[in-house]
Write a structure and sequence with these properties.
Blueprint (H helix, E strand, L loop, with lengths): L8 H4 L10 H14 L9 E4 L10 E4 L18 H9 L28 H27 L9 H51 L4 H69 L6 H57 L2 H10 L14 H4 L1
Antiparallel strand pairs: 1-2
Helix pairs in contact: 4-6, 5-6, 5-7, 6-7, 6-8, 7-8
Length: 372
C-alpha cells in the first residue's frame, strides 16, 4: 500500500476530452520533477521525449535548452525521486546502469541495450548448422557413388596420394617380414648360445673329445655373439621403418583425409549454388543465392588451403623418406653381408657407423638389492 506499483503511462496520466493533460496531475508531475532537479536547473532547461509501448524506439532523455528558453545548459547530475522515476519508467523510458554501478555521461541521445545471449539457443544453432552440413555432404557422397554428381579432381595430387598409399602397404609388408626375421634370428641366437654351453660342458667331462667339443663350443659362442650384433642392426632398421610408416606417413594420410573432407564439402556447396542459379531469380531466391555464394566461397578457400597443405606435406615426406630409407637400407645390407661372411670386425664397424649400441643381456634387469 505504501509502495506504488508502476503502471502504464496511458493508464496513469488522464486525458481530458480535448486531448490535453489534466492540470492537477500535470502540476503534481512537475512538482515531483522539480524536487529531483538540482538548484539552478529548471524545467525550461530539460526536454523529455518518451514513446509509448507500441513504438519500437527506446526512451531518450536529452538535456539541453528548451525551445524558447535563452538559458545555457548546465552540467549537473540528475537524481530523480522514486515517484518521478516510476512515471518515467511507465512512459517506456529505459534506464540501464552499467555493471560497474556508475552511470556513464554521454553527450546527446544515449541508447543503452543489454542483449543476453542464450547458451541453449547457441548450441541449438550449432547443431542445426552441423546437421545441415552433414546432410549436404552425405547427399554429395551418395550422388558421387551413384554416378549422378560431379566431383572436383586434382589429377596430379590424386596420383601422388595413390602412390603414397600403395607405398605404405609395401613398407608395411617389409616391416612385417623384417620383424619375422628378427624373431627367428633371436631364436637361433638363443639356440646357439645354449648349444655352445652344452659343448663347453662336454669338453670338460670328455677327456678323449676335449678339443673337438671345445672347438665347437667356441664356434657356437662366436656365432651367437655375431648374431646378437646382427640382431641389433635389424631391430634398429625395424624401429626406423616403423617410425616412417606408422607416424610420418600416417600423419600425411591424416592430412589427406582432411583434404578429402574439405573437397566433399566444397562440391556439396558448389552443387547447391549451381542449382539455385538455374532456378528463378526473385525477391525470395536472391537472399538464398547470396548466402549460398558466401558459403561456397568459404568452403572453396578451405579446400584450396587443404590442397596446398597436402602438396607441401607430400613434398617434405618424399625428401624425408628417401633420406631415411637410404641410410637404413645401407645398414641392413652391410650388416647382413658382414654376418654371413663371418667378418666380425666389419659387422661391428657397421654398428659404430650408424651409432647403434647393443644392449647387454640382463642389463635392464634390476639387481636383487633393487628388488628388495
Amino acid at each position: 500500500m505504501a509502495q506504488e506499483s508502476p503502471k502504464n503511462s496511458a493508464a496513469e496520466i488522464p486525458v481530458t476530452s480535448n486531448g490535453q493533460l489534466e492540470d492537477s496531475h500535470e502540476h503534481s508531475f512537475n512538482r515531483d520533477l522539480k524536487r529531483s532537479l538540482p538548484v539552478g536547473l529548471g524545467l525550461s532547461e530539460t526536454k523529455i521525449t518518451s514513446h509509448g509501448f507500441d513504438s519500437t524506439k527506446e526512451g531518450v532523455v536529452e538535456a539541453g535548452p528548451f525551445p524558447g528558453s535563452s538559458a545555457s545548459p548546465k552540467s549537473s547530475v540528475i537524481s530523480p525521486s522514486s515517484a518521478a522515476a516510476s512515471r518515467l519508467a511507465g512512459q517506456g523510458c529505459d534506464l540501464i546502469i552499467p555493471t560497474g554501478g556508475r552511470a556513464q555521461q554521454k553527450s546527446g541521445p544515449v541508447v543503452l541495450a543489454d542483449e543476453v545471449k542464450n547458451p541453449a539457443m547457441e548450441k541449438l544453432e550449432l547443431v542445426r548448422k552441423w546437421s545441415l552440413n552433414t546432410y549436404k555432404c552425405t547427399r554429395q557422397i551418395i550422388s558421387e557413388k551413384l554416378g549422378r554428381g560431379s566431383r572436383t579432381v586434382d589429377l596430379e595430387l590424386e596420383a601422388q596420394i595413390d602412390i603414397l598409399r600403395d607405398n605404405k602397404k609395401k613398407y608395411e609388408n617389409i616391416l612385417k617380414l623384417a620383424q619375422t626375421l628378427s624373431t627367428q634370428l633371436f631364436q637361433m641366437v638363443h639356440t646357439q648360445r645354449q648349444l655352445g654351453d652344452a659343448f663347453a660342458d662336454l669338453s670338460l667331462k670328455s677327456l678323449e673329445l676335449h678339443e673337438e667339443f671345445g672347438y665347437n663350443a667356441d664356434t657356437q659362442k662366436l656365432l651367437a655373439k655375431n648374431g646378437e650384433t646382427l640382431l641389433g642392426a635389424i631391430n634398429f632398421f625395424i624401429a626406423s621403418v616403423n617410425t616412417l610408416v606408422n607416424k610420418t606417413i600416417e600423419d600425411t594420410l591424416l592430412t589427406v583425409k582432411q583434404y578429402e573432407s574439405a573437397r566433399i564439402e566444397y562440391d556439396a556447396y558448389r552443387t547447391d549454388l549451381e542449382e539455385l542459379n538455374l532456378g528463378p531469380r526473385d525477391a525470395n531466391t536472391l537472399p538464398k543465392i547470396e548466402q549460398s555464394q558466401q558459403l561456397f566461397q568459404m568452403h572453396k578457400e578451405k579446400y584450396d588451403k587443404m590442397r596446398n597443405d597436402v602438396s607441401i606435406k607430400l613434398k617434405f615426406l618424399e625428401e624425408n623418406k628417401v633420406k631415411v630409407l637410404h641410410n637404413q637400407l645401407v645398414l641392413f645390407h652391410n650388416a647382413i653381408a658382414a654376418y654371413f661372411a663371418g667378418n666380425q670386425k666389419q659387422l661391428e664397424q657397421t654398428l659404430k657407423q650408424f651409432h647403434i649400441k647393443l644392449k647387454t643381456p640382463g642389463a635392464d634387469a634390476p639387481s636383487w638389492l633393487e628388488e628388495q
